[in-house]
Each structure stands twice: as structure tokens, then as C-alpha cells.
Amino acid sequence: ARTGHTATLISGGKVLITGGADMSGNLLSSAEIYDPAMGVFTPAGNLNTARSNHQATLLSDGRVLITGGGSGESALASAEIFDPEKGVFLAAGQMTAPRKFHAATLLENGDVLIAGGSSGKFSPEATLSNAEIFDRRTGTFASTGNMTVRRYGHAATRLADGRILITGGSTGREWKDRTASAETFDPNRKLFLKTENMSLQRFNHQAATLLLADGRVLVAGAGARVEIFDPASGTFSSTAGNVGTGRIFSSATLLPNGEVLITGGYNFAYPPTASAWLYSP
Predict the structure, then answer these.
(1) CA 68 from chain center: how many Å?
(2) Distance (Å, rounded) from C-alpha 102 to C-alpha 18?
């Protein structure tokens, strides 16, 4: 059993699951792979460092970059890479800052943008605005400026033009400090630029931010209202209808026909919901 883990689609349609915490809150270093053809989970070795609330990013060569994470009031700066051909985790150096609940997004050139997060104890002072880039050629991390707002628990989505859209998150101690602000990262100029605010303050909506087939971005979660970001105008607009109740820690999956399935989560209070919604663009 694990929570705060990652699940990453890798070659062959398999899924790599790493780390997290067990039912007692102990950090896990174990990893496993799910094979959909066989319908089974098999052990995949161990991370070099046990971690939870980290990020796992599929690189263009099929390897998986794992960054940060932590537990309680601690955060990690360490990174490692899973090599699916060898089936091993290899140390990948140190980020420029320890961070958890950050965002890690693959850029068009194969590098990875790592932005924000919390450096440890949840507080305004521990919430980060700094960002860095993992260079896939040298295997090193280098600072790349600051976001316009410090945030953790935010979402980051690569747009069709190569920019990264960053939305929401918490700017302070907890979900009550969530923000409606949004910004974009221009990888060519290495700049973060503020864009129009969302209609709602959103936090922990990472799994519900998806690039649609037409290049727009669906933003859902942490509120009943669903909205669309248009990269051409840099604006958000509400869609018709909503997802019933506001939900965080929900999941959203882009289906082959272009529709989006949104499931589960809870409305900032237990119990979680069993409801599911289908969004048709």
C-alpha cells in the first residue's frame, strides 16, 4: 500500500510506480512495474533514496527522471534516473534546491523544467518560487530564474508551442492559501510571464490539467467549475456545466476520442466521492 507515489507510463505500455509512504507514514524506496498484458505487478528494485510527494518525468529516451520529495518537514534535493533496459535506479546528482510538491515538465528539447514546491515545513517562507532545468545531455541541474508567484501543489502543462502553462497551487501554509494566478514559461527566453488569472483558486489539481487535441488546456479540480485556457489569447473561459462538486486529488484522463474522464477526489473534506464526469470538447 502506498500514497504520495508516482505512476509513469513507460515503454511497452507498462507503468512504473515509485516510492510514496505506507499506512504508517514511513517513506518507501520500493518500486514496481504494472504489465497490462499480463495484468500483474512485479518488483522493479529500489530507489536510491526513499521519497514521497516527488515527481517522475518520462524523458525522450525512455528513461524516467525522479526528483525531490520528502516527508513531514523535510524535503530532498536528490534526483535519480530509472533505466528501463537495465531495470535499475541510478543517482542523478542534486537539484539546486530541496523541494517536494513541485512540478516537473518535459520541454520540447528533451530537458526538464522543475519549478516551485515546498522546501520543507509548510509555511510562506518554505514555499518556493525558484525554478531550475535538468539538462539531459550533461545530466546536471541549473537555475533558471523565478516564477512570478511562489507556489506548491500547482499544475504545469506543456503547450503546443513549447511554452509551459503553470496554474494555481498554494502560496502559503495550506490549501486555504490557494491561488488563482497563472503564468507561462518561455523556454527560449528562459522567462516566466504572468498571464490572466483563472476564475477559481485551485490547489492539488495537477492530475486534472490536460492539453486538448486543439491545443487548448482543460483545467479542472479544486472547484466545481471547469475552465479552458486558450494559448492564443492567454485567457481562461468557463465551459458549459461543471463537475458537480469541487474536488481535489481527483484524476483526469484524456481519452483517445478527445474527451476527458474526471473521477473521484473530495471537496476539501472527507469523505471522497465516487462520482465520475465526462467532458466533451
Answers:
(1) 12
(2) 16
- The structure's pTM equals 0.92
Name the β-bridge partners of 146. 130
Q: 124: which DSSP letter? A: T
Sign for the CA dihedral angle at 168, 207, 6, 215 comes to negative
The answer to whether the bond into 271 is cis (omega within 30° of 0) is yes
Q: Where are the alpha helices (DSSP H) in 63-199?
A: none
What is the rounded distance in angstroms from the CA atom of residue 70 to the CA atom of residue 75? 4
- For the segment 157-195, what is each residue's pLDDT rounded down to a tens digit? 999 999 999 999 999 876 678 899 999 999 999 999 999
Report the C-alpha gap between 248 and 150 in whole angstroms.
20
Backbone angles phi, psi at 13, to 5 degrees: 75, 10
179, 151 Cβ separation under 8 angstroms:
yes
Contacts of 72 (CB under 8 A, 6+ apart): none
Quick one: DSSP state of residue 108? T
- DSSP string for 211-263: E-TTS-EEE-SSSSEEEEEETTTTEEEEEEEE-SS--BS-EEEE-TTS-EEEE
All three cell numbers of 264, joined, read: 473521484
SS3 label, residue 82: strand
pLDDT of residue 246: 60
* Residue 179 near residue 171 (C-beta atoms within 8 A): yes
C-beta separation of 168 from 116 below 8 A: no
pLDDT < 70 stretches in the chain: 72, 122, 174-175, 206-208, 223-224, 240-241, 244-247, 267-270
